[in-house]
Design goal:
The structure is a single chain. This protein is mostly helical and about 110 residues long. It has one domain. It is about 75% helix and about 0% strand. The chain has five helices and no strands. α1 runs antiparallel to α5, α2 packs antiparallel against α3 and α3 runs antiparallel to α5.
């Protein structure tokens, strides 16, 4: 079943959705949010790929997958948003939305 997982397509979808999330969530800081979101995706790409394949193969439960993705929160440092001056609370909200977006997108495609 792993052969049917086209992770590069999933990854492209995630990148597009990060842009949409940034535009909707932090309108005045879109560029910084996109930069931070893409950086997070790149830093977690290999792990996301491995976990997505395991999820598709049924070797990882949805709860385990979500726990693993949410565990990457520290990698989503949001440096560009901090430098742009966005409040800490809004940065945290964007970070949480980004993690949920990753989980929901992959669940929507795989499950």
């Amino acid at each position: 079943m792993a052969a049917t997982v086209k992770f590069e397509d999933i990854f492209k979808t995630l990148k597009k959705q990060v842009e949409e999330l940034a535009r909707l969530f932090v309108k005045n800081y879109t560029k910084a949010a996109i930069q931070d979101g893409r950086k997070f995706l790149e830093e977690t790409k290999e792990s996301l790929k491995r976990w997505t394949i395991l999820l598709a193969e049924g070797k990882l439960t949805t709860q385990d997958f979500e726990w693993l993705v949410l565990g990457q929160k520290d990698l989503a440092q949001m440096i560009a948003l901090k430098q742009a001056g966005l409040s800490v609370i809004r940065i945290e909200q964007f970070r949480n939305s980004l993690l949920s977006l990753v989980v929901d997108t992959i669940f929507g495609i795989i499950l």
